[in-house]
Amino acid sequence: MKIEKVAVLTSGGDSPGMNAAIRAAVRQGIDLDLEVVGVKYGYKGLLEGNFQRFGLKDVSGIIEHGGTVLQSKRAPEFKEEKVQDRAVRMINKAGLDGLIVIGGNGSLKGALALHRQEIPVIGVPATIDNDVSGADISIGVDTALNMVVEALDRLRDTATALERAFIVEVMGRQSGYIALMGGLAGGAEVVLVPEVDYDLEEVAQEIYRGYKRGKQHCTIVVAEGIREEGSAAHYVAEQMREKIGFETRVTVLGHMQRGGSPSAFDRVLASRLGATAVKELAGGKSGLMMALKGGEVGAIELEKAVQESKELDMDIFRLAQVLSK
Predict the structure, then answer these.
(1) Which of the four CATH numbers 3.30.70.580, 3.60.40.10, 3.40.50.460, 3.30.1360.40 does domain 143-258 have?
(2) Which residues of the chain have pLDDT under 50?
(3) What is this structure's pTM?
């Protein structure tokens, strides 16, 4: 099958660098004499036929912006086979020969479903959780981590001045990657992640021992997913006040981690992945995800990427515990 017309869509939560990936896919596609269209609003837009032809000018000046110019909407109904059939009809009606999907695990599962329906698809991992199996690092992770570390540095200054404990909540419902790496780089005293059981009594005693040694500040980084209901940070703060009487302050970073201008690393990563994805699609490949592995961009089977879970590096977790003392 000759590839002449391809589409690009972003889906799920936004992540810094998505625009760089879109830009690279469009410009690489045009360089290969392909017609490139953007799908507005992710899978929702695909089902509605919300397509826009993209030229070189349309992606000019977007590499430095966060978010996604294609915008994104959740489409949980896309898990249903009859909904996927409707998407296939829209793809065929628009004369599309292939699709680039930029997003996290849920988005890539949608890409795999279309591949199984014989639609040529290549995936590009973009999620700040960095939980896509097979990829060393996903688009947006570096920018999010830099934002977390900057926040921790700022909070430490005031924590030292006022001798308070700060509890900082970061994103990560099922993955503790941002909490772990952000806490390690930011010098946090405690890091709590969903993948590792924790005992707040032990946490409180460790903090108190540090206080007796003369520590003037304490920073606890928690992933939002350590608690199923309510705010994880507020719960930890309340427990610290009850157990050791420390005055605590809570900072929930929330969606600030997703926003802002992407880092140089994320711009380069996204550009490499977006451009390579189009090359693979134009070469007749499908059912693959482009990923950075060992410093090189390569292809991983989508089925393997979405079905295997990415484990937290426990060696790094133990290192964070040692260095926090």
Answers:
(1) 3.40.50.460
(2) none
(3) 0.93
